[in-house]
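Hi P.,

Sorry for the delay on this. The queue was packed all week, but I finally got your sequence through. Input first:
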Amino acid sequence: MGTPNSISSPKDYYQGKPQKYQFPARGNRKKVNIRASCNETDDISADFLEGIKKANNGGTLVLKKGKKYVIGKKLDLTFLNDIQVQLDGQILFTNDIEYWQKNYFAHPFQNSISFWQWGGKDIVIKGEGEINGNGQVWYDGFAGKQILDPNNTYLRPVLFTTVGATGLSIKGIAMRNSPCWTNFLTESTDIYYDDVSIEAVSINQNRPKNTDGWDTYNVDRLTVTNSRANIGDDCFSPKPNTTNVFVQNLWCNGTNGVSMGSIGQYPGVMDIIENIYIQNVTMLNSRNGARLKAWAGSNVGYGRINNVTYEDFYVDNVDYPLILDQCYFNLNETECAKHPSEVDFTSITFINFSGKSSAKRGRVTVEAKCSENAVCEDIFMEEINVHSPSGDPAMAICDGIKGGIGIPCFPANATEAKTALKDKPKPPATTNV
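Then the structure:
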């Protein structure tokens, strides 16, 4: 028989607020129009670049409703200053894999590449249109491959990338069918997304892979509100050196959850995620709900995830509703024990979780397993009311956490935990007529 850990008292927790940034107020902006594409192979990237240059420094590039603007060449847009893009039409990237795998902007983090990169100051993209990555040909080509395979040479572009942006607002648009991550924000500050819809859907058996909604690297002050993601990987996933994040009213379907990380991947490198507030999330049909993930292994880095709050979280049909994972990526327990993670998890709070799991983990709805080589303390959970189709009581499993976590939690080797993991949903009762 096992004994649950002691139950701690409620503590103060991080309550973030939306960031404030003053974009230039201008009346009577100069409007710039460019020609639309005649078909899906009519590349207007030169016209687009020229239009951006004309609208820079106080103007608006207008992309009209019902029109298609096809981009077939890589574009460096890191020179921007006080520009708006009124996106009511469709920006569509060509599906020329041979060109894009030879012509791109590269970032060293996980061998990321991009169609284009945006940077500068005071950039506003708004409207009712969409940016479309033409992802199906990439989903087909990447079938059977793995992004973190060191031998992988099939690189897929990110749909939208920033490099050195200060003051970026994206509002109202849709982002569809990215070949890989949807948003990769790097070396940037004061970023705002509101009312943005992200979707990646395949028309055959080759599912989208790694089509994260939002990923960050060296980013400070990010706000995401009133947005939706229907994709095949992390809904929202800040990565190394991300600080001061506010997320509110986020709907996710078919994802890998709202994840902190992964971090600690590269040997000798310190990574940080700090001051994160995630509030009012709906998570449907997903592998994970709220997740923290850090690398372990023989040749990895170190760092911390600190001062993170998940509040008001609803799950439905989620395998791991609440999970702390310090044994990432694809390591077995033996290897993880031999080379445990050195990423600390501190001051992490989970408040008001409800809904139900998928029962893939039996009656277990909370799994918080920490490394013996890392600090794992001030972890607190309150009002955790996630149930399992396998029945009640729902079970929490904890290992390696210093102090109580606010709810009863059994070690993984306890009889109660092992039993809860094996429990499967009972078949529905039949009625004889």
